[in-house]
Amino acid sequence: MDVATILGIVVGTGFILMGIFTGGSLMAFYDTSSIFIVIGGTIAGTLVAYPMNKVKEAMTIAKKAFTSKSFSPNETIAKIIEIANIARREGLLALEESAESVNDAFLKKGVMLIVDGTDPELVRNILETELSFLEERHAEGRTIFDTLGSFAPAFGMIGTLIGLINMLQALSDPSAVGPKMAVALITTFYGAVLANLIFIPIAAKLKIKSKEEILIKEVMVEGLLSIQAGENPRIIEIKLESFLPPNKRGTLSENKGEEVGA
User: Fold this and answer.
1) Which of 106, 107, 120, 100 has the alpha carbon at shortest distance from 80?
2) In the 3-class helix/strand/coil scheme, how is 11-53 assigned residue by residue?
3) What is the pTM of this model?
4) Span 120-139, mean pLDDT?
């Protein structure tokens, strides 16, 4: 569970409720027709904009914003250095057995391509193509939440217009103008809250998580190509850590590359 996502939504909702309670009644901010217009309109607009299968995929992708699956560059680099040491001691063919212990499907595929003696340029092309489509899939899911974030306020405004029309029709009754005006504004309130507390923040969180995963995959590609080129494990580690900011560059126990010497 990603605590930050849950905490942000809970804290944001809490402060909004506190603001409501300090100045009025919670029931004054409840209106069934406004909920139907904003939520129903936002969902309907999204279904018009995207195929059903993409919408279903987006719901699956949204779970990533609420999970705390971490991508550790240092762990990935350590695993690559371990593979590099085996390749340096026993040769590339020995990596076939080591590949069985690799949990990441992307890294495992790269190792097997090396074991099969695939040309380095072809290895790079295959892995970078997969990486490109992975990034594209992430972007598609993220775009749907950006779209939801733009539709929610728009349908909030539609609800406000509906409320204003109803208010103008009731101008002959001054006592009804105030309540109808309040209902008109509530719809905009719903749309703004959904967009800025749920949809847009989720899109931003998915973008961050996507960048983290892409970075790990890029480290894998560079590490695998370096192993195939027969580079020293210590040099490979230095090269891979250059992908990371200085504060995230871990020390790997005097580097496993020392096992084989310079």
Assistant:
1) 107
2) HHHHHHHHHHHHHCCHHHHCCHHHHHHHHHHHHHHHHHHCCHH
3) 0.81
4) 91
